[in-house]
Every structure is written in structure tokens, then in C-alpha cells.
Design goal:
mainly beta; Pnp Oxidase, Chain A; seven-stranded antiparallel beta sheet; three-stranded antiparallel beta sheet; globular; disordered C terminus
Length: 186
């Protein structure tokens, strides 16, 4: 039997406090790319997530005001380049609006025509299957059609507003896949 809860109206947190709280969640860093009108375009994101294994779907969240995303979306496709620690200087340089994100970058076109970094930890080629407005961002869902995975290397991470590296000595390798806690069946 469900019991109705009395919900108190709580004011929304301030933007700065909200950003600071979510900044405590460590994420990876990716470079989302496409080639609108045959010219490479890309943006740095830390909102990449796996959505589904069957079919293979990923999502990320570009700003609704992003001119780069408005150019990429016209292609109907995008690439995801998972960045490693060796890409930290590139990510810092490529993050500001208007940056030349392909200067001095080693890349090639994937099978579907999206730019892929030759030294990314992983490269995914995706077709846009959904786009949902969410506040001042979009939630973009893509179906992965092609992928490549490089040998394991240190990932580039983002924490508390800064790029960083996961210390190699703290990573543990598991012999078996992780299992859900007992009693959990999702």
C-alpha cells in the first residue's frame, strides 16, 4: 500500500552550489566529433554515459547554446573519442568556445565519416537516435555502429572543475566482471 508523502516546497539550489556538488562526481572526458560540410568539428564533454547494451546506446549533454553542437547535429552522426591522460593539454586547449580543436591533432575519418583520434582510448561512431531538451542542455542519444578500443592506458578524468589522472597504483584489475549486490535484480 502506497502512502502519500507530504512534500515540502524547497527552493532550488543556486547554480554555483549545484555545480560544486556535482563536481564531486568524478567523470571521464571525451571529445565528440563530426564533419559537417566536410570540415571537422568537436566539443569536449564529461557527460558521456552508457544507456543500453542492446541496442548499444550512449548519451551526452551539449549546451543548448553550443554553436558547435548545432553544426554537428545537422550531420545526424557523431564520434566519441574517450580521452586518456596524454590528452590533458589538448583538453585544456580545446575546452574554450572558439578554440581550434583540431590543430596539431592526429585524427582520421572513421567508416561513417566522423573524425576519430588515432590515439584515443576508445572511438565510437554513432547515429543520433534521440535528442531531448533538458534545461539549458540537450540529452543526445546515439546508437553505436562502429567502435575501436585501444590497449588500456591511464584515463583523463574531471573532478571539482579540474582535469586530472586516475593514479595507476590505485586501479585494481578484476579477474571477473562485477556483480550486482545481493538482492538486486536490475
Amino acid at each position: 500500500m502506497a502512502v502519500a508523502a507530504t512534500a515540502a516546497v524547497v527552493p532550488a539550489p543556486g547554480e554555483h552550489t549545484f555545480r560544486e556538488a556535482l563536481g564531486r562526481f568524478t567523470t571521464g572526458v571525451a571529445f565528440v566529433t563530426a564533419a559537417p560540410d566536410g570540415k571537422p568539428a568537436g566539443l569536449i564533454v564529461n557527460s558521456l554515459a552508457s544507456v543500453s547494451l542492446d541496442p548499444p546506446l550512449v548519451s551526452f549533454c551539449p549546451s543548448r547554446g553550443s554553436l558547435t553542437w548545432s553544426r554537428i547535429r545537422r550531420t545526424g552522426r557523431f564520434g566519441v573519442n574517450v580521452l586518456g591522460s596524454r590528452h590533458e593539454r589538448f583538453a585544456r586547449r580545446a575546452t574554450p568556445a572558439g578554440a581550434d580543436r583540431f590543430a596539431d591533432l592526429d585524427w582520421e575519418l572513421g567508416r561513417s565519416g566522423v573524425p576519430l583520434l588515432t590515439d584515443a582510448l576508445a572511438g565510437l561512431e554513432c547515429e543520433i537516435v534521440a535528442e531531448h531538451p533538458a534545461g539549458d542542455h540537450w540529452i543526445v542519444v546515439g546508437r553505436v555502429d562502429e567502435l575501436r578500443v585501444a590497449p588500456a592506458a591511464d584515463p583523463l578524468v574531471f573532478f571539482a572543475g579540474e582535469f586530472g589522472v586516475l593514479p595507476s597504483g590505485r586501479r585494481r584489475r578484476r579477474a571477473r566482471p562485477a556483480r550486482a549486490p545481493a538482492g538486486r535484480s536490475d
